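Work Package 3 committed the consortium to producing structural models of liganded targets before the mid-term review. Because experimental data for this complex are still outstanding, the team generated a predictive model from sequence and the ligand definition alone, so that downstream docking and mutagenesis planning could proceed in parallel. The input record is reproduced below exactly as it was submitted to the modelling pipeline, together with the SMILES string for zinc ion.
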Amino acid sequence: MLNWPPTEFVSMIRYLKHPSLIALAVFFSLNLLSNSAAHSITPEKPYDLLITNARVIDGSGNPWFRADIGIKNGRIASIGRLRAEDAAKTIDAANQIVAPGFIDVHTHVESIYSLPAAENFVRMGVTTLVTGNCGASATDIAQFLGRIKEKPLAVNLATLIAHGSVRRQAMGSDDRAPTPDESRKMEQLVEQGMKDGAVGLSTGLIYVPGTYARTDEITSLARVVARYGGIYATHMRNEGEKVADAIRESIQIGEQAGLPVEISHFKISSKKLWGQTPMTIGLVRDARSRGLMVTVDQYAYTASSTSLDSRLPSWLRAGGLEEAKKRLADDATRERVRKEMKEGLKRSGFKDYSYAMVASYDPYKSFNGKSIAAITKLVTGKNDVQHQIDQIVSMYEAGGAGMVYHGMSEDDVQRIMREPFTMIASDSGVRQVDESVPHPRGYGNNVRVLGHYVRELQLLSLEDAVRKMTSLPAQTFGFRDRGLIREGFAADLVVFDEKTVGDRATYEQPHQFPSGISYVIVNGEPVFAGEAMTAARPGMALRGPGQSAAQTASLGAR
Ligand SMILES: [Zn+2]
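The resulting structure, written out as tokens with the ligand in place, is given here.
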């Protein structure tokens, strides 16, 4: 990787045994260098980019240290006391923190090629995204990752292969078990996805069609992923009243299939179970003590965000919206839906749907930012649960909505954040500024941890927070040369002021970029510098271990 010292020089030295010959060789080599300079061929500098005056937090969790960082050909070439004249360009970090670029392992950026700058992520320090979460991904992984060649991105991109998407392709959105043929088809799709570079399998077991899968269906797909060294990342079957059962199911899949488990956006969303995180965390700890690799990720907010559909019974949604509408035409069915939703709400401990805010509703954009309770009042003049449920059903029939649900307790969020195996991930997509009223996590997640939870609440150290955004995600998802500041590692870096770093995005005004981020560097190139995005698009597709396994196999077959 390094062009310094020049390779001819090194090989010359290697063949010279006698000290005086070495001295002679050095003399001539130096002469050669100064001559080439005299002939105005600029000798290549040892570093393309040098970051000076940095306090380095290397991602390991260790305390910061002072060093300069020299970057060459997209990699960290040297860490230490380095000379500015050895670099083509220099960034003065001015005593700020330099950390590895943040790795966001839980995103939904299937549409990233239409917003290749991924500005909302970059501006909070994120340099690598893992998408394909919650059971929804591209099914042709080679094609999805390959597009980066024609449409370069500002950030690195990895993806999971998603159970829901694979199931839909094999058997539509039917509420039933797959036939043996359909099972084989799903296994083939997952295997191809792993060979094409997926980092693992994701499920979304509250969504159509993932919700119709039994545990054994997922275990058999997870076995395929295990053969290729992938991970199982799950949006569990339940995050509310049955969260403990759902954690046990996730762990069972990992133990039976023999692969690591990542529980996505770990939380408790039932008010009745607030404060029970010692129990849910305990289940993860127990599995780890039995030897299973289980980790979790979390966003730093007490509100979640998902579709409106997730409030409706899964049996109603089988086969898709048109099928559901046919069922709802029957009065008895409609009444059953009302009854089940009312009971579900009661079990969750919320008195009505004022905790449910609309993020994006296409038929009436004026609903965006308002709660279901407020909208119901606006539309019907009534505010009881019955009318709110009817309002939800009618919005579902009109095509559904994106929602923000204020459903968690701050204590639980903090208890999860303190666990050593918790990483920080946004669950966000790429954002178009000022489009709808989305969850603020897409603009503020990482910096909210650094500003609010580290600096203001002192819940964790800055070094530990950085670890949860860098080396832990890299270790868990197999990015072997990222997530740490080490010589030879990819030069994904973020420079920030730990005194001012913070989130500015709120639930009311989410489209606000963070404060305190100075530079974001991806594969050695600044993509954000000073106050603005640059035009650089140095992102790379990061492919999982299955790809090299597939290559080795095909080489062996030759
Ligand atoms: Zn999810």
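Reviewers should note the following from the model. Confidence is low (pLDDT under 50) at residues 1-17, 21-38. These observations will guide the Year 2 experiments.
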